Amino acid sequence: KTPPAAKIENPVIRLSTTTSVNDSGLLPYLQPHFEADTGYKIEITSAGTGAAIEKARTGDADCLLVHAKSSEEDFIGEGFGEERLPFMFNYFVIVGPEADPAGIKDATTAAEAFAAIANSGSKFVSRGDESGTHVKELKIWEDAGIDPTEEDWYISVGAGMGQTLTVADEEMAYTLSDKATFLAHDDNLKLLKEEAEDMKNTYSLIAITPERWEDTNYAGALAFIEWMTSPKALDLIDAYGVAEYGEPLFFSMR
Amino acid sequence: MDGLIKAINLLFGENPELRQIIAVTLRMSLISTGISSLLGIPLGALIGSREFKGKHWVLRVTNTLMGLPPVVGGLAVFLVLSRSGPLGTLKLLYSVTAMVIAQVVLITPIMTGLTATIISIPAPRIRETAQGVGISAWRQMGLMVYECKSQLVSTVLVGFGRAIAEVGAVQIVGGNVQYKTRVMTTAIMMQTNMGKFHFAISLGVVLLVISFGINALVNYLESRGKA
Amino acid sequence: MDGLIKAINLLFGENPELRQIIAVTLRMSLISTGISSLLGIPLGALIGSREFKGKHWVLRVTNTLMGLPPVVGGLAVFLVLSRSGPLGTLKLLYSVTAMVIAQVVLITPIMTGLTATIISIPAPRIRETAQGVGISAWRQMGLMVYECKSQLVSTVLVGFGRAIAEVGAVQIVGGNVQYKTRVMTTAIMMQTNMGKFHFAISLGVVLLVISFGINALVNYLESRGKA
Amino acid sequence: MIELKDIKKIYDARVVLDIPHLVFDLKKRYALIGVNGSGKTTLLRILAGVLKPDSGEVTSSTPNNMGYMPQSPYAFRFSVEKNVAIAMDKEQVSKDQVLEALKAVGMDHLQHAYGNQLSGGETQRMALARMIVKPCNLLLLDEPTASADIRGTSQIEKALLKYVDDNNCTLILSTHSPAQALRLVDEVLFLDEGRVIEQGSAENVLHHPKHPVIQEFLDHWKI
Amino acid sequence: MIELKDIKKIYDARVVLDIPHLVFDLKKRYALIGVNGSGKTTLLRILAGVLKPDSGEVTSSTPNNMGYMPQSPYAFRFSVEKNVAIAMDKEQVSKDQVLEALKAVGMDHLQHAYGNQLSGGETQRMALARMIVKPCNLLLLDEPTASADIRGTSQIEKALLKYVDDNNCTLILSTHSPAQALRLVDEVLFLDEGRVIEQGSAENVLHHPKHPVIQEFLDHWKI
Lengths: 254, 227, 227, 223, 223
Ligand SMILES: Nc1ncnc2c1ncn2[C@@H]1O[C@H](COP(=O)(O)OP(=O)(O)OP(=O)(O)O)[C@@H](O)[C@H]1O
Ligand SMILES: Nc1ncnc2c1ncn2[C@@H]1O[C@H](COP(=O)(O)OP(=O)(O)OP(=O)(O)O)[C@@H](O)[C@H]1O
Ligand SMILES: [Mg+2]
Ligand SMILES: [Mg+2]
Prior knowledge:
heteropentamer, A: 254 residues, alpha/beta, 10-stranded mixed beta sheet, globular, B: 227 residues, mainly alpha, MetI-like fold, 11 helices, binds adenosine-5'-triphosphate, binds magnesium ion, ABC_transporter-like_ATP-bd (chains D, E), ABC-type transporter, ATPase component (chains D, E), Molybdenum_import_ModC (chains D, E)
């Protein structure tokens, strides 16, 4: 089934992605399958969502895998990418200390949970880095009709998800996280609120347009996207994490 | 360019946050450089000024600790200060104090090693003369430090450079908490992660300018001190 | 403890990845230390060995650059090597070469500054004697470097320590690509981000052991060289 | 009495000092004479305890309050006054004493100069002032007037004799001037290749040496 | 002819050298004499070009191939041989020449020793070998025999005279020994507080000085 490597002009695909997909182990798990199936080699660099997209802007990526809809649309609007292809999702979750001092377990929506946190004056750690997660968090505060930014229980850390979870753990505070990073992260925090539709976190693939940098590996990017959206890859995604966490970390979109 | 103008606007404009960040940065760097110097210079002078068995090994360990990865040093301090750590009850994590502690852990070996290296150059001659008039080993050490004053000032500036430029440890134990423990480097890191590369570089330039100012000031004070 | 056992298992067990990471780490640190030494020591000797107008300012700038935040240096190298940068066509980003370039940018000022500081101690006496027999300024510089050999070896070890311990710049320009540019510090950072602190620390201990080994080796070679 | 037994110092397989047995009596004055490299400095350094012999030991019948001036004394980057005062304990320092010591070696006019900016002879004189500013009972001086001018040498010799008398002090110095040895000391030890080849009164060793090596050496003694 | 005009050197408002006019004739031998701190080293350093005067200038009628030995010459951490050879250009270095120079100052037995481990006198001799290993037409020596023993002094003086003769070289040295000046040089310059207070034949200045300061100074000239 392996296509002859000779047919591939440029076998190296540079994938720029966010820490959540990489640190959760999903990509390292998929990588060997992809490489074996297609004969391509994939070089994964992960960074904050902003940096991951920026690296695609500077021409240092062939393909993008991120989860920040509006930034992605801007990116494509500016003519850097071809098309945004949502292919998997998971959920944001609200995590916090086991004791749950704000009692958010009883809340029915995320906004309600946030309001409970604000009312109880419990600490809340915000990523504060304009990432997809941060944008989502701000949206929930807005829905709850609360502006927490000046409150002293509101800790804005300007950091990645992993570090934010660490701070929340230490401060016995609440935070909003994507589920994959939370499950992969070692800490004492408890998953307290898991919502359905309004806490959905969608990941998309974008092939970088070859128009700007002639050596952009467009064919490779398309091959990667094609493979990632193939039934085989989607099955692999749905299976990932079940063995370790008892549930999948990501859900494929078919 | 654009980023630099933005940074300068931040610095001198309405937004007081950059000024606040610079204040925390300076507080942290100056205090940790001070403490590291107070620990590292005497320790380095002790090692550099004397001949003793196992000196080679002490120097090797010091040299190795000079290459302690900031992240590892930061993590170690984190684990000590964390809620479940031995000093967890002090609740120092995510404070400027915690950052100072981490910096002291990282910089002290540097001050120690460089001081030992420098002091070892004039040490034999000073020792012979000083011992000849019955000066105690402790006072000898003091004299050696005095004689290497201007070189040790450079060493202190090296320490300060490390303190102000370090990000790994400071991020872990300080947490980059807005209005509290956010310093120049963690702010730069944040901008970088947000993909605002040029703005990050501009903040870096601001940091270098501050660094240069401190250097020039210290050099000026030192040259005045020479009379 | 658990983490350490895990790290040792990784190191000596079936999994060859840690060994591969260590190989990349050593390659990167040794090459960049070598290049920085070749640039920084002569430059520092040049500055330290002579008296010239504006020397003070040169020293201040060098001192300031010693405190260049790695993230900033890394970003600058990133922007130069990136596809949209002036050297984009070389396609060096996310390679060991790129990491070496970033390290050289960061370490060379350190080597330069420390060398200048050290050389300045014996310089006046050597200069007077050497000038008296008509030795050119260039050969004088060489003689000064020779005389400070063992101190400069320490300086090189300081540079190596920085190279092997640095993470910010290396992460940005190397990208922490598995099997390619992942080094000890970026691996440690990754573990830290996942909250696997003890494993991260254990990797740090492994790194320190390597660092110590290199130190001991260099010291051994140097003491043998003295005869 | 200071006694040396089986003292040996070896550098790279070369024996530079080899003293099976040697005794210095208390309150006597000794000069070490010998060609360059004969071991004078090495012997003084071992007596001063700043150098460890490879074998043998130095014993002393009484506790020594020792002063030792190396061949190239170190001058600190502070005032001449302070350079002299470092020899004294902090509490003892008396400006008058320091000035007196400086006067004795003809350096009082430079009391405020920086130690590290002195001329060669000035440095040596300052170092001598450092030695005589406080009492001691064993004074070891390595070529104390090698860089001094002839007037300075007279002055220093006078000061030294006075100091040794005042303090009832044992003096051991090295010198390249037989004339100086005759002026200053009771006994001369002639060193050759690390060995004391003759010891006796200054008069005997320098005017009537038994050893042909010394005879040949003294042939070079000109005005 | 080497001519000094209006040379002044001032440290912290203290004039340590003040020479309105001074001429050294070519191929003549000069000694600088004076008490410690009178400015001998300062004058030599200015002549050697290693120190800039605060005013005035030194001019030379012919291009100088100059050699200057400081009062405390530096000894490098490599062999005595190599220490001497550094004076020569890489291509010129000849083992025989080096060994000859070392022999001339009585240091050939230490050719393989480390320069930085020598005794005081040995260091000075090595430095002298470094000066005479290659030709020059202006030789400036700062107290070249201050640390040498009396036999070594004879040997060095002989070697120096031979070298100066062989090379037709102008010699300017400083010394604390009037006797040495009489043995080595044609003219003596007596320095006092930075001024040349008398200049003339060695015989005249040292045996029949006009200046009372010199008279008083020479009173201390003993054997
Ligand atoms: N860098 C300096 N700063 C201040 N004073 C200095 C400096 N160098 C020399 N001096 C002073 O200048 C004077 C002349 O010094 P110089 O070395 O020329 O004396 P000299 O005649 O060679 O003495 P000596 O016989 O002791 O070698 C001395 O009093 C000395 O203290
Ligand atoms: N650290 C050392 N390593 C090797 N050789 C040494 C060392 N120190 C001294 N020597 C040698 O030991 C011998 C005796 O040295 P010492 O300094 O005692 O001589 P000295 O009699 O004081 O000579 P001088 O009259 O020149 O001062 C010399 O030949 C010297 O080269
Ligand atoms: Mg000696
Ligand atoms: Mg002099």
